[in-house]
Design brief:
It contains 15 helices and ten strands. The chain is α/β, with parallel strands linked by helices and about 400 residues long. The strands form three sheets. Strands 1-8-5-4-2-3 form a six-stranded parallel β-sheet, with helices on both faces. Strands 6-7 form a two-stranded antiparallel sheet. Bound molecules: 5,6-dihydroxy-NADP and zinc ion (ZN).
Length: about 400
């Protein structure tokens, strides 16, 4: 295990009706003038927006609104939000929605005090050092953005999806009411579940030795997710399954299980190309990307994946010291992950998300994946993948 510094400052208010206390939570975080950020309108249809505004009104907190965040959120709306926040002199950004809305709120929060274009934080080495405080009322169970310091935005100019990460972007509070996720379409619920599973894999695929405690935590959350997912897909109003999945999303990415270990994140970096190129939902893109990345890894270093296959997916213990058996066990686990994605109704091939001619896009997507900050590098921490390797991975996604 490696040394680490871990601080999770986000106050979590979990449970039904907690959104009615948002005004008090903003006040407790010293917010006096709020920018509310939301997406395409689901929060209006559900009545959440109205309940939140009523709560702010009760706490005598003035607000202004920025709406229209779309999935795979764009940089030009962030710039609009930065201008609006400055004009209205807001001192707090409140996100009502899922990862796309939260990431936009964080980008605005970082952009307001910055003397330059916020995109500097998403391209290159510079990370935000200061940001307006952010609060969240969460409506999806997926990204973990409600308690982490990450934000993922797509450039309106180049179409490239990039991320930044900074402690100052961790929300001050997050309201997590599982009932708010009951209006999610089944496809979006499925995308969220696979995203959670992928975050657990990204942390599990580590080159750090002796990480028994976090290994077992990750395996436990994975098993719980495989148990809860069929319940919620069968009955979208299964409140307890919704609650467990919402908590799993948070646990997967709030930093606890990833502490003291190197992590992978190769599948995520490659998936961003699919979101950029085809506008596919992040979790659906991962259902295509991750099995391909894992197969590429299994051919080179199958031990971790074999362990996971045995402990989580019930594969038989491979014969010790037999490389072919290790590889077979790893592949059995990957097949089980594919079957899990299939049970959620998610796509499996590049063609399903990009059309019959999607293979023609591979060279460009491989280049874009590895090109950042003006140079070409590698992605993934478990086994670093250069442009040639990423090209191979994209080919493994083809039907
Ligand atoms: O825009 P509205 O009308 O709200 O509709 C949204 C949107 O169309 C809808 N939706 C959300 N909550 C709903 C609802 N519909 C009905 N009822 C509800 N309760 O769902 C659609 C998708 O929303 P989105 O926010 O895009 O989903 P998600 O939470 O999966 O976020 C995905 C984004 O987060 C990024 C992804 O790359 C993607 O851009 N990620 C952010 C991370 C982070 N900051 O830590 C980590 C993740 O790995 C991920 O990369
Ligand atoms: Zn993700």
């Amino acid at each position: 295990m490696d040394g680490f510094s871990f601080r999770m400052p986000t106050r979590i208010e979990f449970g039904e009706g907690k959104e009615s206390h948002v005004g008090e939570l903003v006040s407790a975080s010293d917010g006096a003038r709020v920018l509310i950020v939301y997406g395409g309108g689901s929060v209006k249809r559900s009545g959440l927006l109205q309940r939140v505004i009523a709560s702010l009104d009760r706490s005598l907190i003035p607000h202004t609104i920025l709406c229209g965040v779309r999935p795979n959120p764009l940089s030009n709306l962030v710039r609009e939000g930065v201008d609006l926040a400055r004009d209205e002199k807001v001192d707090f950004v409140l996100a009502l929605g899922g990862g796309s809305v939260i990431d936009t709120a964080k980008a605005i929060a970082a952009g307001v005090p910055y003397n330059g274009d916020f995109w500097d934080f998403y391209e290159g080495e510079r990370a935000p050092e200061t940001a307006l405080p952010v609060g969240v009322v969460l409506t999806t169970a997926a990204t973990g953005s409600e308690a982490d310091g990450d934000s993922v935005i797509t450039s309106s100019e180049t179409g490239l999806k990039r991320e930044t990460s900074a402690a100052c972007l961790r929300p001050r509070f997050t309201v997590m009411d599982p009932a708010l996720t009951e209006t999610l379409p089944a496809y979006q619920t499925a995308c969220g579940i696979f995203d959670i599973m992928s975050h657990l894999y990204e942390a599990y695929l580590s080159t750090t030795a002796e990480t028994s405690v976090s290994d077992r935590m990750i395996e436990g959350v994975m098993i719980a997710l495989t148990e809860q997912a069929p319940r919620v897909m069968a009955d979208p109003h299964d409140h307890q399954a919704r609650a467990n999945i919402m908590w799993a999303a948070n646990v997967a990415l709030n930093g606890m299980i990833g502490a003291g270990r190197e992590q992978d994140w190769g599948s995520h970096e490659i998936e961003y190309a699919l979101s950029s190129e085809y506008g596919v939902a992040h979790g659906a893109g991962l259902a295509v990307t991750m099995p391909a990345v894992l197969s590429w890894y299994a051919a080179r270093s199958p031990e971790r994946l074999a362990t996971l296959a045995v402990r989580v997916w019930g594969a038989p213990e491979p014969k010790a010291g037999d490389p072919a058996a290790l590889r077979a066990a790893a592949e059995e686990g990957i097949a089980a992950l594919r079957a899990f994605a299939d049970s959620l109704g998610l796509p499996a091939t590049l063609e399903e998300v990009g059309g019959a001619d999607a293979a023609a896009d591979i060279p460009r997507m491989a280049h874009d994946t590895c090109f950042s900050g003006g140079r070409t590098g590698t992605v993934g921490g478990f086994i670093p993948m250069d442009e040639a390797a990423v090209t191979e991975v994209f080919r493994l996604m083809c039907a």
